[in-house]
UniProtKB/TrEMBL annotation:
Transmembrane segments: none annotated. It comes from the Bacteria. Residues 1-24 are annotated as: Disordered. This is Peptidase M48 domain-containing protein. Binds 1 zinc ion per subunit. It comes from Portibacter lacus. Keywords: Hydrolase, Metal-binding, Metalloprotease, Protease, Zinc. GO terms for molecular function: metal ion binding; metalloendopeptidase activity.
Length: 283
C-alpha cells in the first residue's frame, strides 16, 4: 500500500497522490509536451498545404492541390466504374447516351474547353430516383436518369454538363482533397495539443466541417460561371441554367436549410450569380 493512511482513511504522500507537487509537475510536463507536439504537427500540416501548389493551365490560377493532372486522370478513370455502380450502373439506352456524348463534346470542343486537355467522358447513369450530376477529377462526368428525364431541352442538359466540366477545369476535386487533408491534419493536431479534450475536439470538428462546406459553395458558384461561359462559346442559351435551378429546387421538395449549413448555395443565390455571369460574358 502506497503512503500512510490516517484514521479518516485518507492517504498522504507517495507518487500516486494527485495533489502532491510531483503529481502536478508530471501533469504539467505532459501537457506542455503534448502542446509542443500538437503545434509542431499543425506547423507541418500548414507548410505542406501552403507550399504544395500548381498553376492551372486554363485559369492561370495558383492552386493548392493534392495530385498532378496525370494522377487526376488515372484516379477518375479508376473510380468511374465504382461510382456508376452506386447509381445502378450505366443506362442501357444507347440513343440517350449518344445524345449526352454529343452535347458534352460540343461543350469541350470550345476555345476554353480545349485548354484543359482532359480526356472527358460523359456517363448516363441508370438511377431513376436520385436527381444528381457530378464530376470526378480528370474529366469523368455523370448525370442520373432521374435528372436527365426532368430536363426540358438540350440547352438545359448543356447547362448541367457545362457546370460539371467547370468542376474539372477548376480542378475542384484536387483542391478539395488537399484542403480536407489539411483541415483533418489540423483537427488531429488540436486533439493532440489539447491532450484529447472532448470539448476542443468537438469545436475543431465543427469548424472544420463548416470550412469545407463553404469551400463547396464557392466551387459550385465557380462551376456555374464556367457553365455560362462554355454554353455561350458552344452556341447554347445560358438562360436555360435558370430553368435547371427551378428543376433542382422542385426535386428537393422545397426543403430549406441555412446556406451556411449547406454544401451548395441557395437556388436564389445561384440564379443571381448566373444572371450576372450572362451579362458579363455577353458584353
Amino acid at each position: 500500500m502506497l503512503g500512510n493512511r490516517s484514521k479518516q482513511g485518507r492517504y498522504y504522500g507517495g507518487t500516486g497522490d494527485p495533489y502532491s507537487r510531483n503529481g502536478r509537475g508530471a501533469g504539467t510536463s505532459r501537457f506542455k509536451l503534448m502542446l509542443i507536439i500538437g503545434l509542431a504537427m499543425a506547423a507541418f500540416q500548414a507548410f505542406k498545404y501552403f507550399t504544395n501548389t500548381q498553376t492551372n493551365p486554363v485559369t492561370g490560377e495558383t492552386q493548392r492541390v493534392q495530385w498532378s493532372t496525370e494522377e487526376e486522370v488515372a484516379l477518375g478513370i479508376q473510380s468511374a466504374p465504382q461510382m456508376a455502380q452506386q447509381y445502378g450502373g450505366l443506362h442501357p439506352d444507347q440513343r440517350a447516351q449518344d445524345y449526352l456524348d454529343r452535347v458534352g463534346e460540343r461543350l469541350v470542343n470550345t476555345p476554353t474547353g480545349r485548354l484543359s486537355e482532359y480526356p472527358y467522358e460523359f456517363h448516363l447513369l441508370a438511377d431513376p430516383n436520385v436527381v444528381n450530376a457530378f464530376a470526378l477529377p480528370g474529366g469523368q462526368t455523370f448525370i442520373t436518369a432521374a435528372l436527365f428525364n426532368k430536363l426540358e431541352d438540350e440547352d438545359q442538359l448543356a447547362g448541367i454538363m457545362g457546370h460539371e466540366i467547370g468542376h474539372v477545369i477548376e480542378r475542384h476535386g484536387a483542391e478539395r482533397m488537399a484542403k480536407t487533408g489539411f483541415i483533418q491534419g489540423i483537427i488531429q493536431s488540436v486533439l493532440i495539443g489539447s491532450g484529447g479534450d472532448a470539448t476542443m475536439a468537438q469545436i475543431a470538428n465543427v469548424v472544420g466541417n463548416y470550412a469545407n462546406m463553404k469551400y463547396g459553395r464557392d466551387q459550385e458558384l465557380e462551376s456555374d460561371n464556367w457553365g455560362v461561359k462554355l454554353m455561350l462559346e458552344s452556341g447554347y442559351d445560358p438562360e436555360a441554367m435558370i430553368g435547371v435551378m427551378d428543376i433542382l429546387e422542385a426535386a428537393s421538395g422545397g426543403s430549406r436549410v441555412p446556406e451556411i449549413q449547406s454544401s451548395h448555395p441557395s437556388p436564389e443565390n445561384r440564379r443571381e450569380q448566373i444572371r450576372e455571369a450572362i451579362k458579363r460574358y455577353k458584353k
